[in-house]
Amino acid sequence: MLPATRRTLLHLVATTQVQGRAPSLVAALVRDGRPVWAAGRGEVDGREPDPEATQYRIGSITKALVAVLVLRLRDEGLLDLGDPLGRHLDTPAGGEATVAQLLSHSSGLAAESRGPWWERTDGDLRPAPEDLFGERPQRHRAGELHHYSNTGYALLGALVEKLRGEPWYPVLRREVLLPLGMERTTYGPEGPHAEGWAAHPWADVVLPEPLTETGLMAPAGQLWSTAADLGRFAAFLARGDERVLSAASLAEMRRPAVEPQNADWSASYGLGLQLIRVDGRVLAGHAGSMPGFVGAVLASPEEGLAAATLANQTSMPEVVSLAARLVLATADAEPRIPEPWRPDEDADLALLELTGPWYWGPRAMLLRLGAGRTLDLAPLAGGGVRGSRFRPEEDGTWTGLDNYFAGETLRVVRRPDGTVSHLDLGSFVYTREPYAPEDAIPGGVAEGGWR
After folding, report:
1. Which residue numbers delimit the DUF7586 domain (predicted)?
2. Taking phi first (over 0 means left), then psi (-120 to 50 degrees means alpha), and beta for anything else, what does residue 356 get?
């Protein structure tokens, strides 16, 4: 990191701590999977907090970790994201919602558990699943809209426990936290840790917040962590780790799964991850809060940058925006330098015959060959949604990964002599010439051709 960049980042952290009136604040930045900068401001037990060692409660960032466990279960074939929850779990509510709807907060379940306020009262007050829900647990039809639900993630934690045969946190520690090096991420606080405080709205005085064990609601916001540990998690969100979850599954989590939450499309939600769009960049991660604490983890895979921020103040939205500002400031001050271009030594040369221009009717498209036999179809001019990336399948076809053709099948159709006739993409025909009479054009070509 350049000295000027370091000073810019430190200034952002220092002013946020002052303006948000946080007793303490820590932040960490990672680039291309490596920690490159960290800072702490304020005091914990009379000294500046240590981004590597000082724990804070992370609140709903816990949800993103639980979501990783659920995707692991999916990748192992133990469930399908389209499965109704009731297929796997005997639940007093939410059984009709799919696993994907629970992950994306579109299950329609109530936002909070039955009173009293779960974040400030002991979990023993809600000893059984039926104690989580009031008289009207279903507030909307499943899949109807995005409605943030803490109770939905309580059910996802129970789902992990049911399919793994042990409580969700030991599973999380063994399968996610330790492989990622997140040894300071724990169920409860382990010193050194910050105390939770509320700052008076009209005076510079603070009030201690209660420390609660949330019981069955724990998957929604129980965990404690450090800025450095969350930096490791942020790096994972940007890159994936085959020991935990593949890059492809992480990319699936980062795609919007529900309608954007506001008219300007600046925020949406994927499978357990919040998505925000700032200055043309999409950042993925999660914010979290519990009484006395607030934090955020945000990653930009395109920039290879990710940031984590934590503070011990109840109401401090500035900490969330700080994580985004750290990423954007670094991206602007020190743009990512791409890796050198090199020829693909493993390219399948037999696929070169598929590359180049193709025509969907009169629309000119370009097909490129990528690493691992992937294909990229894009308009030659004018943009549009008909472009897509495709992954190869064992049967010789390709499956669309994004945009209009996501999930659709691309087939190469050959003539009797083995030469390529056309591409069939979800029944659309792509030919080497625009409406050539000799090509396989559905509906035929008007007699006389172009005029």
Report:
1. 350-432
2. left
Taking the CB of residue 414, how many other CB atoms lie within 10 A of it? 11
Task: Determine the pLDDT at residue 266.
Answer: 86
Bridge partner list, 287: 296
Task: Identify the bridge partners of residue 55 per DSSP, sorted by sequence position.
Answer: 193
Q: Does the bond joining 192 to the residue before it have cis omega, within 30 degrees of 0?
A: yes
The confidence score (pLDDT) of residue 135 equals 85
pLDDT of residue 210: 93
The residue among 49, 413, 121, 172 whose CA lies nearest residue 290 is 121
Task: Identify the pLDDT of residue 260.
Answer: 72
Residues of the chain under the 70 pLDDT cut: 261, 383-385
DSSP-based helix, strand, coil % in the chain, nearest 5:
30, 25, 45
Give the CATH number of domain 3-333; options: 3.40.50.1000, 3.40.710.10, 3.40.50.300, 3.30.9.10.
3.40.710.10
- Outline where DSSP puts E strands in 122-226: 197-199, 206-208, 224-225
Nearest to 370 by CA among 403, 385, 392: 392
Cα gap 211→213, rounded to integer Å: 7
Checking DSSP bridges between strand 293-300 and strand 34-42, what pairing results, if any? unpaired
Task: List residues bridging with 30 in a β-sheet.
Answer: 35, 306
CA distances to 61, 107, 226, 320 from 309, rounded to whole Å, are 11, 29, 9, 7
CB-side neighbour CA atoms (13 Å) of 261 = 15
Which two three-digit tokens encode residue 98? 């799919």
What pLDDT is attached to residue 384?
Answer: 67
> How far is residue 331 from each of residues 279, 327, 405, measured CA to CA in Å?
11, 6, 31
Cβ–Cβ under 8 Å, residues 67 and 253: yes
| Distance in Å from the first CA to the final CA of the chain | 62
Residue 82 DSSP class: T
* Under 8 Å between Cβ of 402 and 389: yes
Gap between the Cα atoms of 150 and 220, Å rounded: 5
Distance of alpha carbon 320 from alpha carbon 267, whole angstroms: 13
Beta strands in 56-140 (DSSP E): 56-57
Each as own residue / partner, the long-range contacts of residues 355-363 (CB below 8 Å, 24 or more positions apart, any chain) are 357/432, 358/423, 358/430, 358/431, 358/432, 359/430, 359/431, 359/432, 359/433, 359/434, 359/435, 360/386, 360/428, 360/429, 360/430, 361/434, 361/435, 362/434, 362/435
